[in-house]
From TrEMBL:
<keyword id="KW-0201">Cytochrome c-type biogenesis</keyword>
<protein>
    <submittedName>
        <fullName>AhpC/TSA family protein</fullName>
    </submittedName>
</protein>
<dbReference type="InterPro" id="IPR013740">
    <property type="entry name" value="Redoxin"/>
</dbReference>
<feature type="signal peptide">
    <location>
        <begin position="1"/>
        <end position="18"/>
    </location>
</feature>
<dbReference type="InterPro" id="IPR017937">
    <property type="entry name" value="Thioredoxin_CS"/>
</dbReference>
<keyword id="KW-1015">Disulfide bond</keyword>
<keyword id="KW-0676">Redox-active center</keyword>
<dbReference type="GO" id="GO:0030313">
    <property type="term" value="C:cell envelope"/>
</dbReference>
<dbReference type="InterPro" id="IPR036249">
    <property type="entry name" value="Thioredoxin-like_sf"/>
</dbReference>
<keyword id="KW-0732">Signal</keyword>
<dbReference type="Pfam" id="PF14289">
    <property type="entry name" value="DUF4369"/>
</dbReference>
<dbReference type="InterPro" id="IPR050553">
    <property type="entry name" value="Thioredoxin_ResA/DsbE_sf"/>
</dbReference>
<dbReference type="GO" id="GO:0017004">
    <property type="term" value="P:cytochrome complex assembly"/>
</dbReference>
<dbReference type="InterPro" id="IPR013766">
    <property type="entry name" value="Thioredoxin_domain"/>
</dbReference>
<dbReference type="InterPro" id="IPR025380">
    <property type="entry name" value="DUF4369"/>
</dbReference>
<dbReference type="Pfam" id="PF08534">
    <property type="entry name" value="Redoxin"/>
</dbReference>
<dbReference type="GO" id="GO:0016491">
    <property type="term" value="F:oxidoreductase activity"/>
</dbReference>
Amino acid sequence: MIKRLAFFATMLSLASCAQTKSPSDTKFSVEGKIEGAQGKKIVQIMYFDEGERIYLADTIDDGIFHFEGKVTCPLKGNLRVNDLDPETGRIKMTIGDAGMTQLYLENTAINVSFKEGDIKNALITGGPVQSEFNEYNKFIEEPASKQRELMEKLYAGYRSKNLKPEDFQALQAEIGTQVEKITDLSINYIIEHTDSYVSVGLLEEIARREGKPVDELFAMFNNMSEAVKTSHVGEKLNQSLTYLKASQIGNVAPDFTKKSITGEDLTLSSLRGKYVLLDFWGSWCGPCRASHPHLREINEKYKSHGLEIVSIGCEKNRSLEKCESSWKTAVEKDGMQDWKHVLNNYDKDKFDLPSMFSVKAYPTKILLDKDGKIVAKHIGGGNNEELDQKLKDLIGL
């Protein structure tokens, strides 16, 4: 019975999606209440609509918040609540996603309520897709609850600074087990709900973790209804899966042209015949900056043996001028002038390199052979031995 209700609810949402693409006064309205709220807070909703990141924020001191907006179709958003320091007015950030939950924004009335400090158990009512999302959350309740419990232990260990390395590893392993259980349940849900925006969001999350073969992900996507596949979020997912497949180890790396730090265009395919190490980083990224001394060592060791490093700056500021300034300052400060640099923010709408190479975390380093084929991916700033071994195996030193 639930499946039939979810099916009809989702079909209604698909129809409403098509309607909101034409001029309309329809909008969403979020009414929220934090029971037992204490102190001043900032409440934020973040979501993407047609490629644009949208932030809504409300500063409150009575536990009541309100948002209004309009979406082109049902879209998943992040709802986050943080305390504000009463003296400085600065945000007191929570660790991880402890102060965050997810909801579906539809052009209708949406109500949110939760107790102070318990946003994960928020009661959210809204449109038909939110109703289906609530059913999905019940479907994964057991492993999701266990995962939250383990994450709380992990965060408590960080806060107390008493977490032993072996305990950290054990918690990570247990969390990984629960994530796998959630993933398996999500896949079952996707297979059984092919007309669902919730399924699109779940498949996108699974693809982001890169734990499943891309052909399996494509098969699930291709089995979805045409209405879902041709919606904005469906087309976005299709593009993400296409990029993911193109950036798999063994494939020729996607080609691109970007303006370099010297002002000249750099085309990746022009480096064929050389080994290439693509370094995705940002001036804002601490682990990226910490990895640069090792990158200097790599450059010194392998440059004369045919290795070209191409560092791809990925800045967050909306001002291109500020992105350029932060990027160039960091290159100089970190002593990175001895290899090639491009800024992803140049012509980002034409070539968004993190998307094209399915980069989900920073820093990420991608190693190419002389034919331009991807031979290795190294994610994160630690475990340099793994990257060193890949370079040694490829170049022979």
